[in-house]
Amino acid sequence: MARLAFALAAIVALQLADAKRVGGRGFGDEFEWYDLDGGLAEAQASGKPIMYVFHKSWCGACKSLAPKFADSADIKKQAEKFVLINLVDDEHPNDDKFSPDGSYIPRIFFGKNDGSVDHSIINPTGS
Description:
The protein has 127 residues and is an alpha/beta fold. It has four helices and five strands. The chain has a five-stranded mixed β-sheet. 21% of the residues are buried.
């Protein structure tokens, strides 16, 4: 009985996460992108860490980064190891935990599968 309940819970979680998928929004439609709620549910269900991408539709730097991200062979290779959360414009949560080093855009950082920021993954050059 416990196995059946676990299996049903997993199916519901996967269906919920599937319903929360979003397009690449310029950052690569071939990637499996999620909104915040769907991505957090998928990360918890799969155990995968998270890559958060924050950007704005009107931002020149974001528009410049998007095709470089989408075309990067390294990112394509690594993306399957992460749940990708794509947040644009008003989708940015109003929570300081999502601005660990500021609220600039574009902003990419990594999280653990519980949604918390993984402070061990940094860019030492700052760019």
